[in-house]
Amino acid sequence: MTQPADTAYIVFDVESIVDGALLSRVQYPGEGLSPQEAIERQKEERIEKTGSDFIPVTFHVPVSIAVARVSRSFELLDLLALDAPDYDPREMVRLFWKGIEVYRKASLVDFNGRGFDLPLLSLSAFRFGISCSTYFKDPDKFGHRYRFTSKHIDLQEWMTEYGAFRLVGGLNLCAKMLGKPGKMEVSGGMVDELYAEGKIQEINDYCLNDVLDTYFIFLRTRVLTGEISLEQEQDLVLKTKEWIEERSQVQPALAEYLENFGEWSPEPFV
Fold first, then answer.
1. What is the domain class of 4-259 according to CATH?
2. Pairwise CA distance, residues 91 & 109, whole Å
């Protein structure tokens, strides 16, 4: 059994939906809009104003939080969706922040976590009254909340020189460059629809797969930093594939990931 000291990195991802009731109270007070009416109106306003119907993170509630624990030698130790199979937002958020307390020395790894996932999780802790003392009171001034810290590696920021350019294609692009599945049948834009249809498990399966993609992207960035060689990375990829094959016996969601698990080929135009 692994101990907290064995975990050097926590790779995570969050999926969410909009709290239409809160949106109605804040953006359209006194108008009597239903949650869905408020969402539709806000989307129309966002498209007109920004060209995108994405509603700001401040109105979101997590419906899936998936995490992977990774060792100091970059081996995958564990992968799970929090609070399965209930996926209660309050409990998922509580478990996430409890994990940060338990693995307080571990670095956080995500993709656009500073712009979305962590604001969502900290706002959710505020909503539910959940302590995240390690995150907010880290004695290290270069702790998780500092932009350029090694305690939080936002891969999107890291790869874009901290916002110097837009990484068009995002996580999906980076995963597919490495021969990994990236987006398959489900994408982030489908989460609202899946949730409305009661397909919570499908959302959490998708979130788990995103964490695996993030992990493999993280490995390649460590090749760039010189922390591991390309040969070591490829050995880790092979070991992880074998780990996923074994784990897929008890986590059927991983079977689809394996079916789309390709070989890395750096050749362009192929």
1. alpha beta
2. 21
